[in-house]
Amino acid sequence: MNILFDLFGFLPFLRFSYTDLRWQKVYNSEISIAWLMILGTKIVVCNLQQIVSSFLISICVFIILIFTVLIAESILGKYLFGAGDIKMIALLIWSFELTTVFYSIFIGCCSAIGFLLLKKCCSDLKRIIIPFAPFLTAGILLALLLQHFFLLSKI
User: Fold this and answer.
1) 42, 96 in Cβ contact below 8 A?
2) Are 139 and 112 in contact (CB under 8 A)?
3) pLDDT at residue 1 in the model
4) What are the pLDDT digits (tens) for 125-150?
5) DSSP characters over 29-71
6) Can you tell me the distance from the alpha carbon of 63 to that of 113, in angstroms, rounded to the nearest whole number?
7) Hey, CA dihedral for 140, 142, 148, 151, is it positive or negative?
């Protein structure tokens, strides 16, 4: 996609990062507005088949992630992943190409795990909760930079 449309799709994730850092919450109203913004962008840029397939993939991943997290949390008895983070991943799939999505999630997860390990080493807290939205946003930004300026456009 065009870099301007990708940057437009990136903007809501900045807001999600702010609310996740400040209140540890990603609001449903903001996610809904972002979905509608991306729909408007996709109507301009994509054909109907691309819009429908992207929407169905994001909804399927959302359902799979919800059930996976619910099952894992019930087995482990621990809070693992917030519903806002799952909605953000579904929005990410809806907003960008799949290569960008995979790199974004990979970079975001690696940086969040690194931060968690660093925080565990430097702190004696038993339970550490980290906001995932800033790490996912950083992953999106890095993946978009790689895609548009460096290597991912060659793959």
Assistant:
1) no
2) no
3) 56
4) 777 888 999 999 999 999 999 888 87
5) HHHHHHHHHHHHHHHHHS-HHHHHHHHHHHHHHHHHHHHHHHH
6) 24
7) negative
**Comparing C-alpha atoms, which of 138, 139, 134 is closest to residue 26?**
134
Q: What angle do CA 6, 11, 15 make, to 5 degrees?
A: 155
CB 65 within 8 A of CB 86: yes
R_g of the chain, CA atoms, integer Å? 16
Give the residue-averaged pLDDT of 114-129: 86
Residues 35/12, Cβ–Cβ less than 8 Å: no
> Of 107, 115, 108, 95, which is closest to residue 46 (Cα–Cα)?
95
**Tokens 């909605």 found at:** 87
Query: How far from the centroid of its chain's Cα atoms is residue 147's Cα?
Result: 17
From the list 89, 84, 94, the residue with the least C-alpha distance to 109 is: 89
Q: Is 99 exposed, middle or buried (0-12, 13-18, 19+ CB in 10 A)?
A: middle
Find, among 147, 113, 117, 149, the residue nearest to 132 by Cα.
113
